Amino acid sequence: MPDYFHPDRLQKLADLQNSGANAYPESISVFGDLPRGMSLDLLARAEEIQNTEVCVAGRVLGRRGYGKLAFIDLHDGDGAIQVVLQKDLLPAEDFALLNCLNLGDFIALRGEMRKTDKGQDSIYGSRFEILTKGLENPPDQHYGLADSELRARRRYVDLFTNQSVRENFRKRAAMIQAMREVFLNQDYLEVETPVMHPIYGGANAEPFTTVHNALDMKLYMRIAPELYLKRLVVGGIERVFEFARVFRNEGLSPRHNPEFTMLEFYQAYTDYRGMMTLTEELVLAAAAAADCGETVTFRGDDYSLSAPFARIRYADAFKEHLGFDATDRDAVTAKLLEIKHDVPEGDSYAWWKAVNDLFEEYVEQKLTGPVFVYDYPSAICPLAKPLTEDPIWAGRFEFFLGGMELANAFSELNNPQLQLQKFEEQVADADPESPNAVDYDYVRALAYGMPPAGGCGIGVDRLMMVLLGQDTIRDVLLFPQLRPEDGL
């Protein structure tokens, strides 16, 4: 017998069944023809519906009084309302059900809205039934689940015991909808692209793998939807976006979950500067939907969301925080040796990847933002268009807020020959054990011609972290990835 089937509750379940009641009925009998009311709406209309018969249903999370009178705190999807179960107002068989009732059980109730002697709006029951018998004890309703890992592991409990958690996930949905409306108001098309890819690309990350049995074909769970979305731009869909579930087979951290939501969008006839403007609009729309105001508080620090957001070149931010130019090979080499980092040869992807490792280690955490860092090294941006005036740098930005990268955007590379060259250089510099390969079909798509375009990806979960003031990514995911639970 599982230890979450408690003996005292099993006994009450048996008592309930022995009385002839169904502990898990398929329908609600006490409502009759009356519709179910929601607690917050009933309380808002309490004065006008005094002595009017109403129906409610929900979970019991509080109980006071015994004998001939019981006060029940009933929680539904809206909030909570007090119901009063009084012996002389209920049929004897209904009142007897109180002996089988535990916290956490679901009940349905029919009764009149009245005020208690203390003036509290409550529903005085005339009919009452148990809808679901809980066999596990809920945590104290005033404290909920205190342990953060337990909260994530048992999110179903965290949600019904913590109103702020429910509210944050409602805000998350509202924020996503607000961003969606920004796109729809600008004639973007929302699409769904494949989750399983024959070749993975669009980001530098390790994929999850699977096998298609019928085709005897190895597939990769997508690490980014980028290359499929840009195929659509080639096909004439000039404004396109997707809220994509993305999978990266990498470590867990306060900022990383292997499955997460990426918002990616592409627009023809613009560039990365146009994407800056749109990204700023999206962030502000999400913040407004979450009622953030002009300032958000994240990990104890306040950040102003006043537009326009700051902008700084990658090279300038690098020099400001490291004290030397990113193009100063001797200084970069000395710093890499100081921290015992490999020093690649030549002017390759690997060299500039090492330069960017310094940027990520010493600069990113100081970019509290909101700030756009733009013009990244071309060598580490195989999908971005090099700047005409100085091809060592590419038309790319990353957006930072709260010391975290929240967005990444390009002036999209649309030269098929240069794209093929960059893909091949990237594969040549990759780990020999990596299954990475050139996506020749994407190059073929570019060969048909893609208009100049800007594209951007926003990490939705990280954005939610900052705007909702949550310290870890698992606090904004309903069911984050966790290690297996012992003994389950």
How do the strands and helices of this protein lay out in sequence?
Elements lengths: L6 H12 L20 H6 L8 E12 L4 E7 L4 E7 L5 H5 L9 E10 L5 E12 L15 H6 L1 H7 L1 H22 L4 E2 L5 E2 L11 E4 L4 E5 L4 H9 L4 E9 L11 E10 L3 H18 L5 E4 L2 E4 L5 E4 H9 L6 H10 L10 H14 L8 E7 L15 E9 L2 E8 L4 H14 L10 H8 L5 E7 H9 L20
Parallel strand pairs: 3-5, 6-10, 14-15
Antiparallel strand pairs: 1-2, 1-4, 2-3, 4-5, 7-9, 8-9, 10-11, 11-18, 12-13, 15-16, 16-17, 17-18
Helix pairs in contact: 5-6, 6-8, 12-13
Describe the structure.
This protein has 488 residues and is of the alpha+beta class. The chain folds into two domains: 7-132, Nucleic acid-binding proteins (OB fold (Dihydrolipoamide Acetyltransferase, E2P)); 159-309 and 369-476, 2-Layer Sandwich (BirA Bifunctional Protein, domain 2), CATH 3.30.930.10. 31% of the residues lie in helices and 25% in strands. The protein has 14 helices and 18 strands. The protein has helices at residues 7-18, 39-44, 92-96, 148-153, 155-161, 163-184, 226-234, 272-289, 314-322, 329-338, 349-362, 416-429, 440-447, 460-468, and strands at residues 53-64, 69-75, 80-86, 106-115, 121-132, 189-190, 196-197, 209-212, 217-221, 239-247, 259-268, 295-298, 301-304, 310-313, 371-377, 393-401, 404-411, 453-459. Strand 16 and strand 17 (404-411) form a beta hairpin. Helix 5 crosses helix 6 (163-184), helix 6 (163-184) runs antiparallel to helix 8 (272-289) and helix 12 (416-429) runs antiparallel to helix 13.
